[in-house]
């Protein structure tokens, strides 16, 4: 008798099966089947041995842990209010209601999707995908359409060849249209005999060309897998059923339903059988009894045969033979022509209640304008595996501080043209690395209709702009940046979309409410753009999948969310904000947009723990960078937009001697809530693109043309240019940003070609040759040493700055950050030979960076013997010791404690 001692757990999640067929690109080209199972409740089974051997003790069922409450999970919808000591009943109630809405939204999502991860991977299903069964599948969401067809150069732009229509297979109740483009059988070839015949389009594309027939492959697989006699019941399908029937009813049992009398239940029949065989030997009896006492169990144990179980576990399926049934590209090309070849141009055709229309598919991954530049076309991007881009480098490690180099690919060249990804790789990436930055931020990369919009009026959210190159070109850019240790951030525009109907999402299916709100709420009243309907599950599916797409497909490391204020409020942020908390929870706040941002951060950080998200919100909505579990929105950084506006106002409208040091400090550090999450910049692309001037243009003009500027004005401009950048980069949080070219004082603004400048490219480029000019090279050297100061001295990654000296009369600012002392003298005239600054530690302080050095274009007024300063035992600025340092006018110095003295 076999020893039956092993206990085998069996899960009962085997019912209500749904299949989602996915045909992703690249490595996802193999058709995936997602099996979604719901739970079944099984009655309790007590397992007992009916043989004479000793019965093992019954096992106690493991109790499921009780469902955790929000408090046990560490969730507090108003947690960040308590953290900052904010008491505002209306806003606290708003946060609680928002959290309840978030839970309801997640429950609603999970009624349609298996998980949030599945919801954020819609690109694996929607759009155009190669299927392993020699075809291409197309799926699009257009609930307002009545008829859908694909038109393109592959079918002569026919509206009837490849279609799906309402009420037929290919269209569901949610508005999704499914079209299959079969590959074309070559003349003289016969179709495959097996309906499940698959092809390797990408992985091991030569695998399968063995010449073996299907019959030979199956015979070899069966010979390897089945032991002698095991395949007997497969060859004779009804043998087991007939034997069981004979055991139950005998050899002359009933042959029709009329002859079949009412059967007693299974327990009764088993007891009768057991009574008849009570005198049999134990070997003839079953090895276990199954008794049901009416209780429900999700998991039950079966005491089985350990030898048979181990034998089953060791059995390996003959996968190697199954792979032989897959034909490689050689066999596929020999037999078939692709129904949609690589590079084919296409659009989607809809018949709507308002008439027929053509659109670029919403999930298209590559879009180019036609010859006349008026209408866009989607391009099927499916390069053969031997020429498709292959990733070479991994993501760089997430740094503790960010030094971001903001770039626009189109203006990266010195030539008056639209530059390419290749131009950017050869020129900007090495420069950004040399300059000491550890991240680049790209604007205008996502496909947009008009070049002069800088890329903010996005038309195709899944497509890289064809102006700069192909999708593979952009992959190479990201890969090359990663090789240099540079993170790649993408400025993403989910706050609005282009209103162009022929190339964008507006009126996509002929209705006004497909992706966007209707009426005034669906249109930005100042920018003429469309506003997303964030409360719609399909829109959330589109946007969340879009974020995940850029990370998965192009390996970007983070996102800069552009202009959140335009989506957070129904007035698009164009209202006067006084700082009252009521302004963040009144009737003008879009709760659905807030829920989307929370979901976006939760999904991104769950799927990609090292991803970085940056919020750009002029209204500084409370809780931007606080955890979502504490009532925040979950961003990693927020942008202090008021800093650059302050500097521009001071430079253009305020005389130097009237600058307020208190205002400068308060603007740069804000309310000191989440200052460690603040991203600061002195100037970015907005100031010059919006028609303003760069700081260098205001301060020093175009020095390359020797413009008539006095030596005094020139020194003033260079000094302030360095001081503004130094204090902005070191007084705030752990992140600093600079726009391409501003680090060396680019003297011209940015202006894209448009009708009012006769489409001129004269200002849509960067003058890299200015680095050969002494002035610009000196400014670049200072900026490079400033970045090096953070790289080697870890300035930004330390705690917050201790601002202990702000004097509006002397115009001096001083603060400590770790062992580093920063001293700024903004006074236009007054210089101080021995200015007293308090410090906490006694010792020797050495100058590590001085804006007035001659190599940076300064006057070199600080003598060499003043480079090292020793503390004086006298209290100052609330500190135990002080330094008496020389401060030339319009200069700044950074001191580092190099030696501690015992007092």
TrEMBL record:
<dbReference type="InterPro" id="IPR004193">
    <property type="entry name" value="Glyco_hydro_13_N"/>
</dbReference>
<dbReference type="GO" id="GO:0043169">
    <property type="term" value="F:cation binding"/>
</dbReference>
<dbReference type="Pfam" id="PF02806">
    <property type="entry name" value="Alpha-amylase_C"/>
</dbReference>
<dbReference type="InterPro" id="IPR006047">
    <property type="entry name" value="GH13_cat_dom"/>
</dbReference>
<dbReference type="InterPro" id="IPR013783">
    <property type="entry name" value="Ig-like_fold"/>
</dbReference>
<dbReference type="InterPro" id="IPR017853">
    <property type="entry name" value="GH"/>
</dbReference>
<dbReference type="Pfam" id="PF00128">
    <property type="entry name" value="Alpha-amylase"/>
</dbReference>
<dbReference type="InterPro" id="IPR037439">
    <property type="entry name" value="Branching_enzy"/>
</dbReference>
<dbReference type="InterPro" id="IPR013780">
    <property type="entry name" value="Glyco_hydro_b"/>
</dbReference>
<comment type="similarity">
    <text>Belongs to the glycosyl hydrolase 13 family. GlgB subfamily.</text>
</comment>
<comment type="pathway">
    <text>Glycan biosynthesis; starch biosynthesis.</text>
</comment>
<dbReference type="InterPro" id="IPR006048">
    <property type="entry name" value="A-amylase/branching_C"/>
</dbReference>
<dbReference type="GO" id="GO:0019252">
    <property type="term" value="P:starch biosynthetic process"/>
</dbReference>
<dbReference type="InterPro" id="IPR014756">
    <property type="entry name" value="Ig_E-set"/>
</dbReference>
<dbReference type="GO" id="GO:0005978">
    <property type="term" value="P:glycogen biosynthetic process"/>
</dbReference>
<dbReference type="GO" id="GO:0003844">
    <property type="term" value="F:1,4-alpha-glucan branching enzyme activity"/>
</dbReference>
<feature type="region of interest" description="Disordered">
    <location>
        <begin position="49"/>
        <end position="73"/>
    </location>
</feature>
<keyword id="KW-0035">Amyloplast</keyword>
<feature type="domain" description="Glycosyl hydrolase family 13 catalytic">
    <location>
        <begin position="418"/>
        <end position="767"/>
    </location>
</feature>
<dbReference type="GO" id="GO:0004553">
    <property type="term" value="F:hydrolase activity, hydrolyzing O-glycosyl compounds"/>
</dbReference>
<protein>
    <recommendedName>
        <fullName>1,4-alpha-glucan branching enzyme</fullName>
        <ecNumber>2.4.1.18</ecNumber>
    </recommendedName>
</protein>
<keyword id="KW-0934">Plastid</keyword>
<dbReference type="Pfam" id="PF02922">
    <property type="entry name" value="CBM_48"/>
</dbReference>
<dbReference type="GO" id="GO:0009501">
    <property type="term" value="C:amyloplast"/>
</dbReference>
<keyword id="KW-0808">Transferase</keyword>
